[in-house]
Design a protein that fits this description.
Layout lengths: L5 H7 L1 H4 L4 E5 L6 H11 L3 E6 L13 E5 L7 H12 L5 E6 L2 E4 L8 H10 L4 E8 L18 E3 L4 E6 L5 E9 L1 H5 L12 E7 L30 E5 L1 H8 L15 E3 L4 H6 L10
Length: 288
């Protein structure tokens, strides 16, 4: 379903936003748009909102579940200008997930349990947000795949991830918050601005009055940014992503410095949750 603008969609979106969870795809280019949307629908999201350039159109077979909202995701502050009005329009019971095109959400046991089951359990644990790690994917042969995207042969790093305690502006350590690093943004950090090197993202969250998403993918309510509650570990999830690889290979300032993303810790991605759990890139918490 097409909408004239974000404002026009929000004027009539009440019935859609009341039946979560809602998936959001922020479309920066035309790579793997339909694949990303189909992945969200298969995961169990009741509807998908596609913030899209005008040149992309919703396939006819997806029209009943996908809402296309014209939006320039290359514009300054596009993330917050897209997401914050949407969050404000949602009932406080609605769960949201957002990602960019060529990104795919995985959660523990996602082969046999859908995202609605995941969020039902997380809600029972009195959590309103779930930490996700953005795990970089990349093609093994950049000669054959100059945009670094190849789903059939996708690879990821099996090691090289680390965390540092997060501090506030006064230098105080924040409770249960860490800055996570690794993947291509760490290995090729000389080509990545310092404020874009983190790989943590609160990729699943429940709308709340006054909630605002910040440009660094954190929220203004600090509890949303914690990895777990005070009394035990909680579920985490992962977003596997070609976004960093695409950017590094399409940016003129870095493409010629990177003949390959492969290194001794590269392994094929099996496209299943178990591999991500085995590598420690997400955990089931108390969900067995």
């Amino acid at each position: 379903m097409d909408h004239a603008s974000l404002e026009a969609f929000l004027q009539t979106a009440g019935p859609v936003l009341a039946r979560g969870p809602i998936g959001v795809v922020l479309i920066e280019d035309l790579v793997e748009v339909e694949g990303t949307i189909r992945h969200q629908l298969a995961a169990g999201f009741r509807a998908v909102l596609a913030f899209s350039p005008p040149v992309w159109q919703v396939p006819a077979e997806l029209a009943g579940q996908v809402h296309r909202i014209p939006f320039d995701m290359r514009a300054p502050e596009a993330l917050t200008r897209a997401m914050n009005p949407l969050i404000a329009a949602c009932p406080e019971t609605t769960w949201l997930h957002y990602c960019y095109n060529a990104e795919y959400l995985f959660h523990p046991f996602s082969e046999t349990r859908n995202v609605r089951e995941l969020l039902a359990f997380h809600t029972e644990e009195r959590r309103d947000a779930m930490l996700t790690f953005v795990v970089d994917l990349y093609a093994p042969d950049l000669g054959r795949n100059p945009d670094a995207v190849n789903l059939a042969e996708a690879m990821l790093d099996r090691a090289g991830y680390f965390a540092l305690a997060r501090k506030n502006a006064a230098g105080q350590v924040l409770d249960r918050q860490y800055d996570f690093f690794g993947g291509l943004r760490w290995r090729f950090e000389e080509h990545v601005p310092e404020n874009r090197r983190k790989i943590d993202r609160v990729g699943l969250f429940r709308a709340q009055k006054g909630l605002l998403l910040r440009p660094d993918h954190s929220f203004n309510i600090e509890e949303y940014n914690t990895f777990a509650c005070p009394w035990h570990h909680n579920l985490t999830a992962a977003i596997v992503s070609f976004r960093a690889a695409k950017a590094l290979k399409t940016n003129a300032g870095s493409t010629f410095d990177i003949p390959s993303f492969r290194w001794y810790n590269s392994v094929p991605f099996a496209w299943n949750a178990q591999q991500l759990m085995d590598l420690g890139l997400m955990e089931p918490g108390q969900w067995f």
